[in-house]
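Methods — Computational structure assignment.
A single polypeptide chain was analysed. Its primary sequence is given first, followed by the predicted tertiary structure written as structure tokens.
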Amino acid sequence: MKRVILAFLTASSFGCFATETITLDWLNLIPKTEPVALSLPDLTDQQKNYLQEVLTLSRYSTPESKARIKAVEASLKEDGIDAFMYLNMRNKYIQAKQRAAESVTDAFDGQRIKIPGFLIPLEFSDAMVSTDFLLVPVAGACIHMPPPPANQIIRVSYPKGFQIRTVQFPVWVEGTITSNLQSEDLYIIDGTSHVTTGYTLAATEVIDYE
């Protein structure tokens, strides 16, 4: 009998633990990545302008643009600067930062979480009742500005619907989270934007922030 009771208590304790809701901070959704190391010499304003000119002209294939690139490249070489070497380093730096922005963690996959944020409505079931929205850490993110990193955007599904007062007012969202990196064109407020989201969340409760 004692063994039966002990087994029951153990199972009950595990069940309570398994359904425990974890309160997350947005920083919890940013996985640790290696810092992007880039060492460049100090450049004068003129040298920076030259590099920008080479970057712009390299998009064209006209005889004039090629001739100008050679002239600028030669001028930079006199200063000991290899234009294309530095532009290649710049591209690698941008790519590394992009990878870091799109990195997500699966540490909380399948867990019930609670997180505060600001919602950006995508779909409505009634006037100002949103059933599908983005949750972001900063008010107005994704609206008339570049979106936050993917690991700072959660795509939320809430069939019950949440009555929105204003997108400037924070909310608490509770539900099951899953890491799910995806890019798509979304209609946000008054236009379509290409947004990459890092997580999806099946919400069971959305309430005003207190």
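Note: Helices lie at 2-18, 45-57, 63-78, 83-101.
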